[in-house]
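Supplementary notes for students who missed Thursday's class. We covered one full example, reproduced here. Read the sequence, then the structure, then the short commentary at the end.
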Amino acid sequence: MVGGVSIANSNNWVIYLGHTTKTYFSSYTDWEAYSNLIQVYSGIVSSNPPAGWYEITLDTPFSYNNTYNLIIAIDENKAGYDSFTQYSLIFTPAQTNRAISYHSDVTNPNPASPGTASGRYAYISQLQLDILTGPYNPSGFSAVSGGTNDIDLSWNLNANSDTVVIAYSTNNTFGTPVNSTVYEVNDALSGGGTIVYKGKGTAYNHSGLNHSTNYYYKVFSLNDYGEYSDGVSDFAQTDCDEVTVFPWTETFEDNPGSRACWTQIQESGNASWSFSGGSTGGSVSTAYGGAKNARFISQAGTNSPVTKLVTPQLDLSSFTTPYLQFYYAQEVSSGYQNQLKVYYRVSPSDSWVQLAHYTTSVSSWIFAELVLPNPSATYQIAFEGINNSGFANVIDNVKVFQPADMGVVSVTTTQPFTSDVTIGTQKNFIVGV
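Structure (token representation):
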């Protein structure tokens, strides 16, 4: 741009790119067909661009085929007009009828049928393009758990609808596909990853997986020239399987990893339980057992944030009177007191039912035990931290179990006996066992 020139009434731009076999415009109506153009930008450019190169980042990447000529079209839609003889610098030498334009201070033409041009020109504005090699990646790539044993993948094809190739791994290590090399499903990439999908669809269900496991994915586009894009990644964790072995204990340590099966529900505000040793201050500086416990927050607020820490589903269907045991603390800080509630629900689709509400200061680890009513095959328990500017809530060593029955070991019977006992002048009948 020449700089120092206002284009405040000429800065609403829509930019199109396309392929063309034209080398010039043969007449005032020799427009490139609108169907051959792809909109790559729509927006407001600077009303007073500085001197030098002015960069515009495209909204939609354009895949150039490296064969045809590239055509660039700009549709300016701002009402009014600006008046200056030269806004931009041009390329030389000139080439006859290399550009075509329609301009009007009154009529805003339809780019699909601009009508008769106002002029043809032997020059074009100076411009340069950043051109990436290879195809563009698919867009909108997403991996989402589909249950305990599958993950749902979805994506959008790139502008050229190139073939999609997806690799997966369990350690987030991927090699780079080699151009001109043909990969099929179940082939391994050198450096990491196994091909799980190849095609031109926009979704895939990866099944037969292990529960409670992270799976990592990388998706590439493959064009007709055998070139691969650089790839984009995502990951998901399969859902946790139901807990079926009891007693079940959670210590919130990094291993064996059952902690990853807990989920969180933010009821108010935006805060999460974390896992560390002790509270954020006060007297509780270490976990009850091991190195880590679950910890809520300590920040300014009144009854907010509020977040539930939720167990995986527990199969309690065979129990009659299951119990919950845990240790907790919630120390007051300068008169401010965090609180803890305990809930249960019989399935993920049922409502939460409150079991307990702890409102007072607890400055050292204390034991708590609750009976769990209405046992089911899809039972869940939630610890709800309520922030009130006190020291952080902490819980540790959560245990769910069915107490052992106090069964009768043996029964001993004795034959009844009778006897007459004389007391004074009255006889008493006594039965003894």
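Commentary. The mean pLDDT is 90. The chain has three domains: 1-131, 139-237, 248-401. If anything here is unclear, bring it to office hours.
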